[in-house]
Write a structure and sequence with these properties.
Blueprint: H1 3-125, H2 131-153, H3 156-173, H4 179-195, H5 200-212, H6 241-257, H7 275-297, H8 301-318, H9 323-336, H10 348-368
Helix pairs in contact: 1-6, 1-7, 2-3, 2-10, 3-4, 4-10, 5-7, 5-9, 7-8, 8-9
Length: 372
């Protein structure tokens, strides 16, 4: 073999080795590209599945919330109708009671007029009317007025003042026989003092002030407000595929997270009320406070307490418990502690004893004059 043949064979061997190496490098490069595309498709499929699941979850939540809102709207409408019915019944009963009280007052006035005419006739028939008899009649009249204040107006303050005036009149007479009458009167005055004085006007005005503050209490805010939305992220011009996938993934997580809020109210929240239902609830709160005012004037402690409890429950359930709502709740609790219908005593015992004493005195005076 010559030198030229050896050289030609070596060149052929080198060319074959180079071709084999190039083929191996090409196959490795193809495998690397195939793995990258497979990983990319895996992330795309995973992202699509997450989006589909999120859409399905949100649609279910929206449907549940719509059902809750529809149920709540129906309950509120029923409550409004019931409140209007109760208000009409209360107004009708109040008008009837006012008419009955006017009739009773008119009848009492007629009785007093007849008694006054009878007393005047009796006084004119007596020629020896002295100062003590005038004072006894005055004390009897004061006790009758005190009884009227208790029975008709439930006014302990004026009744107590009239009873004390009657006791002062009996004290000025200074008769030993009046000790029993004054003892009964002192016991009745002591019971009336222990009952205390009810500031009905003050309580009524406090309820009116709370009714005017209903619109100032904020409701529970809905989730996902505009203040929670972040500013749009700036996308760089030379963004790679990996950066796009990462940015899309975090954007999806942020959108899903905007639908979840954690608020510690210390209670269970049924649903966030839309504006229309908020107006209904505010109207119901005002009706409850007005119902408490009517119960206060009518001395119905049960209805008064029930109205305040309902108002507190609605505020705790549907309102945002901030400083304003807490102040309103504290005022409602303070009003709930007020006694609006205490047990008041009348002056029937002392009035009866005084009437018996006057009759006995007149009988003795007639006997002295020889009148049977």
């Amino acid at each position: 073999m010559t030198d030229s043949d050896t050289t030609t064979q070596s060149s052929a061997d080198n060319t074959s080795i180079n071709n084999n190496s190039a083929g191996k490098v090409a196959r490795v490069t193809d495998k690397s590209h195939s793995g990258s595309f497979a990983l990319l498709w895996f992330f795309i499929v995973l992202l699509f599945a997450a989006v589909c699941y999120g859409a399905y979850f949100l649609s279910n939540q929206a449907m549940l919330q719509k059902n809750v809102i529809d149920s709540l709207r129906s309950q509120l409408e029923q409550q409004v109708q019931a409140a209007e019915t109760r208000q009409q019944v209360l107004e009708s009963n109040l008008e009837k009671e006012l008419v009955e009280q006017q009739e009773i007052v008119q009848a009492n006035l007629n009785d007093l007029a007849e008694q006054l005419d009878s007393n005047n006739a009796r006084l004119m028939s007596l020629s020896s009317v002295n100062r003590d008899e005038w004072k006894l009649q005055e004390a009897q009249y004061l006790l009758r007025l005190a009884d009227q204040r208790i029975l008709l107006e439930k006014d302990s303050q004026n009744a107590l003042a009239l009873a004390l005036s009657a006791d002062d009149v009996l004290r000025d007479i200074d008769q030993a026989d009046l000790v029993g009458v004054r003892k009964l009167l002192a016991e009745e005055i002591a019971v009336l003092k222990l009952a205390g004085v009810i500031d009905r006007e003050g309580i009524y005005l406090r309820l009116s002030a709370l009714s005017n503050q209903i619109e100032a209490i904020p409701f529970i805010e809905p989730l996902g407000t505009q203040s929670d939305i972040l500013e749009e992220e700036v996308i760089p011009e030379n963004e790679t595929v990996k950066q796009k996938i990462t940015r899309g993934f975090y954007s999806l997580l942020h959108k899903l997270g905007s639908y979840v809020r954690v608020r510690d109210h210390g209670k269970t929240i049924n649903a966030v009320l839309p504006p229309a239902e908020q107006k209904y609830l505010q109207q119901n709160l005002r009706l409850m406070l007005e119902q408490a005012q009517v119960a206060l004037l009518r001395n119905e402690e049960g209805i008064y307490q029930e109205s305040l409890v309902k108002a507190q429950n609605w505020i705790n359930q549907y309102y945002n418990l901030n400083e304003k709502a807490s102040a309103v709740l504290e005022e409602l609790q303070a009003l709930q502690q007020e006694e609006v219908a205490p047990e008041l005593t009348n002056f029937s015992n002392s009035a009866t004893a005084l009437a018996e004493y006057i009759a006995k005195r007149e009988k003795m005076a007639a006997a002295r004059r020889g009148v049977r």
